[in-house]
Amino acid sequence: MIEIRNLTEKDMPEVVRLKISSWQEELAGKLEHQLIFEEELSFWVHWMHHAKENNDVRTLIGAFEHNEMLGVAFASFAEEEDGKDAFELNGLWVYPNHRGKKLSILLLKHLIDIYLPLKKTSLVVYNHHYAPSNQYYLYLGGKIFKKDLQIDGKLEVDVFIFDLEQLNQKCVEILSKG
Known about the structure:
Residues 2-165 form the N-acetyltransferase domain. It comes from Peloplasma aerotolerans. By secondary structure, the chain is of the alpha+beta class. The chain has a single domain, classed as Gcn5-related N-acetyltransferase (GNAT) (Aminopeptidase, 3-Layer(aba) Sandwich). The chain contains five helices and seven strands, in the order E-H-H-E-E-E-H-E-H-E-E-H. Strands 1-2-3-4-5-7-6 form a seven-stranded mixed sheet, sandwiched between helices. Helix 3 links the parallel strand 4 and strand 5 (122-128). Helix 1 crosses helix 2 (37-49) and helix 3 runs antiparallel to helix 5. The radius of gyration is 16 Å and the shape is globular. It starts with a strand and ends with a helix.
């Protein structure tokens, strides 16, 4: 049975290893850029603990089976320029051997269930233009509403927006299909 639970600081080293292992896949060979474990761990642990002073609600969740981490998702309130009533998916990573099992949908649905009662009406996702996951976000109904350049202008990023009610319905439909 898959359990979705909040991540703890103790989980963060494995989370960061998962993020780093997913990074080159996300870059899709378009850019050579390495993430440094210690820097990523420090950043995300700090981010995890400093929501209140940033007037934010930060959610870090993981999917586990028999205490084995299968995937994780991070979310927070979006920047106002991306939508006053939006929340942002800050990260969604699933181990390759656990993909195709609806884990990402399960994690997204869990996040939606947290942010809908907080009066959020949309979800924003920043995703590398050439990443394989761009097709996934289009399939889920995301619309690209702007483009961004990151890593000194070398990395093209598509910024998706989702109507939260529609995304919620899509997740329910997908999860109901055995």
